[in-house]
Amino acid sequence: xxxxxxxxxxxxxxxxxxxxxxxxxxxxxxxxxxxxxxxxxxxxxxxxxxxxxxxxxxxxxxxxxxxxxxxxxxxxxxxxxxxxxxxxxxxxxxxxxxxxxxxxxxxxxxxxxxxxxxxxxxxxxxxxxxxxxxxxxxxxxxxxxxxxxxxxxxxxxxxxxxxxxxxxxxxxxxxxxxxxxxxxxxxxxxxxxxxxxxxxxxxxxxxxxxxxxxxxxxxxxxxxxxxxxxxxxxxxxxxxxxxxxxxxxxxxxxxxxxxxxxxxxxxxxxxxxxxxxxxxxx
Amino acid sequence: xxxxxxxxxxxxxxxxxxxxxxxxxxxxxxxxxxxxxxxxxxxxxxxxxxxxxxxxxxxxxxxxxxxxxxxxxxxxxxxxxxxxxxxxxxxxxxxxxxxxxxxxxxxxxxxxxxxxxxxxxxxxxxxxxxxxxxxxxxxxxxxxxxxxxxxxxxxxxxxxxxxxxxxxxxxxxxxxxxxxxxxxxxxxxxxxxxxxxxxxxxxxxxxxxxxxxxxxxxxxxxxxxxxxxxxxxxxxxxxxxxxxxxxxxxxxxxxxxxxxxxxxxxxxxxxxxxxxxxxxxx
Lengths: 282, 282
Description:
Radius of gyration of chain A: 21 Å
Largest sheet of chain A: 8 strands, mixed
Strand order of the largest sheet of chain A: 3-2-1-4-5-6-7-8
CATH topology of the largest domain in chain A: Rossmann fold
Number of strands of chain A: 8
Number of helices of chain A: 12
Number of domains of chain A: 2
Structural class of chain A: alpha/beta
Strand content of chain A: 5-15%
Largest interface: A-B, 95 and 95 residues
Oligomer: homodimer
Helix content of chain A: 40-55%
Shape of chain A: globular
CATH superfamily of the largest domain in chain A: NAD(P)-binding Rossmann-like Domain
């Protein structure tokens, strides 16, 4: 079984390590536009050999682990070149656009759209680790459009990785994920920006910032190359969600201006219920 | 040495445990408005005996570990009752108002205003642990106004707790802390609120929310009883900071509407520099 991985950062590299662990006798091929990352992935043993346009047809599985704009661009030409029994796997953070782009492709049933809900704020091959996906949700979109034998193979692999398989409509996926992932990233980036603009004296930040601050701005370390294309592809949903977030902050601000701390307290109390939701996340 | 602690939650309870560990032969007295918490603190061994108005004069040290509005109210009458060699320690998250309130008190030199930069999103006596403050910053305000012998005793205790002592003007403290702590809490609370309002289907949140979401909304679990008074006392600084945060979010939204993902990318890139700041926080 030959597995090709395009994009050898945290996400692709961790899939490589998970394949090494759970797919018996697999050979791992990989490529990365960043040649230093490609060399590093070889040196770290994430992959055995480099992948290239001339070897796509020899692969049994190809995983697109690159920013969502690049994945959208490459998916069609790669699917064209793949052999008739191979599977193309996409693992990006937006699902509607790639599903609709491949909708009419003659090899549509060799494609599986997924979104593993896993990641860290680090990037590059050295950030990859074999258990990144263990215990995490793996969302499949339009799984019924994938050839049963190919789907079964993929699902079995994800189960061996101890992922929790969920199915979701691509449009719904993009709406929900705007709330529970994309908005968090924007909130975190802008929080980091606000503090850095004002707090020119970095030492004061060092001295006074605690674990709460670290927690809320952790995502501001994320890679812009990965996130700008996600924001672009999920623009409509994100704009709606971001508008609601700003409206809530404006309301909080106006309650503070009115000195209505009773109402503020009440809103915080209601939001405390998030405890039960967070208890379900690992 | 008799140490009295008013407020036996996470913050006060952890000071009790740290006293037990680092102040040889101390006797620990404590009280909490919440009688269940007071009983729990006794049962957990955080304190040895209950504290009350009739015993304030017998204490060598009294620590105010209650919400900042209650601390402000109690500080004056308690200081009135304390004996002439005792130390009153305040550990709240706002410093300007309490320092100016006690400014003219005849026993001002028996008061020390501090802010230990430590906490978790949990509350109550059971959340307390002896090493909460280990390695964390302890900010002293107007330390020169505290009697040298009392100051020396307190600083030695904080050093034994392995805290890092910093000094800061109370006004400056409140300005900085609005950026690196108070804003994070508001951002987190409103993020949680936005998601909970929209995502009525909790199961979808469970399925799709990952560690990034958990990290950004962690502080939304914080206690409103503690935080509403902080927002009130630091209103002016917080309103300024919150206004800047909203303006940054508005700018991000407007760049998205203009499809200017180049500019968005650039802003994220600049904010990535927060890595170096976060590296200094434990």
